[in-house]
């Protein structure tokens, strides 16, 4: 029913991201891809990292500031603990 290439692409993306949308690249590329998704109407996302601690730390340090600069995320402000 589907062309062989389409099935192979679907299988690749399904295996790589459990059917999700893969965000792979440099910090600038990831921020740009998230900006594109935002322009399409996406207003939230669930992220999954293969090497959670390492990649979440990198995402926090490198991608989030770029999202803030694009106006896609407000800077985090810690609240004082009572």
Write a brief structural summary.
With 82 residues, the protein is mainly alpha-helical. Helices cover 55% and strands 0% of the residues.
Account of the 3D structure:
The protein has 82 residues and is mainly alpha-helical. The chain has a domain at 20-69. Helix content is 55%, strand content 0%. The protein contains 3 helices and no strands. Helix 2 (27-39) packs across helix 3. The termini are far apart. The model has no long low-confidence stretch (mean pLDDT 86).
**Total number of β-strand segments?**
0
Largest sheet: none
- Taken from the alpha-carbon principal axes, the silhouette is elongated
Cα(first) to Cα(last) distance is 62 Å
Q: Please, what is the average pLDDT? A: 86
Please trace the helix and strand order, writing H or E for each element.
HHH
Helix content: 40-55%
Strand content: under 5%
Low-pLDDT segments, ≥5 res: none
Radius of gyration: 16 Å
Briefly note the structural class of the backbone.
Answer: mainly alpha
Tally of helical runs: 3
What multimeric state do the chains show? single chain
